């Protein structure tokens, strides 16, 4: 039996695929390559090219590959841009998730791990976010991820007495960085690490978007978590679902303390050896001041832990991006 990884040719999805294979599970990639990269799919891993909005294709992939479950990573992940493209964001993230659940029900597939986001919390009024902290998304992206969680909840209730009751969990995280494989790197034009790395490679000065947030140094504070740790948590969740063990409906994959954009910039300069003073630009819409989550529940159930220091996060991401330029 296999696990279908939607978005498996993307930065996070490709790491999940490798982690599944390392755990002795059988990954199958489903990706339309709208933001994924075909060479990120490892040799020998089945690759279904197509959109999660294609209901027939999703169901066929589930049936053809005898799927045990889905790890749903695909989606439109840009909070700031979602403010300008709300309809596109909802189509990809809400309708896409609905179609996957519909295809799963038709194919008799009952396990799903959903890549959600800490963006469901918006700008929380607590220092440390826990799973039941109030959900107040600050962007269409965050709203779409919260609706995705609702869809899973409602489908689980609806199928509770069926032959294949839905078992699910949602993993919430924010800034995923670094690399656990030198052939896979973050290609997003909107994420902090690739923006900074591209600027340095092109001889430009990196930019900070806003330094007037309500934080200690005026720049956003976030959970920065290594992609290798994120991938391992997805696999642990899939294993727990497959084994029929109890599982929470949602887990925060948080660092517990967070880092500011300025602290990240300092680490980049330190690790790369390139001395620079960031330029200050305007805020990006939809970006909250601070969001830091605890990972205690995930540590209990999914072996979640922060295995990388900030310098190691920068180093692995920088080395993978430089390797891609060779």
UniProtKB/TrEMBL annotation:
Named cofactor requirement(s): NAD(+)
Pathway: Carbohydrate metabolism; galactose metabolism
Assigned keywords, A-Z: Carbohydrate metabolism, Isomerase, NAD
Record EC number: 5.1.3.2
Top EC class of this enzyme: isomerase
Classification via InterPro entries: Epimerase_deHydtase, NAD(P)-bd_dom_sf, UDP_G4E
Entry keyword annotation includes DNA-binding: no
Annotated transmembrane regions: none
Catalytic activity: UDP-alpha-D-glucose = UDP-alpha-D-galactose
Example of a GO MF term: UDP-glucose 4-epimerase activity
Span of domain NAD-dependent epimerase/dehydratase: 4-254
Similarity remark: Belongs to the NAD(P)-dependent epimerase/dehydratase family.
Protein name: UDP-glucose 4-epimerase
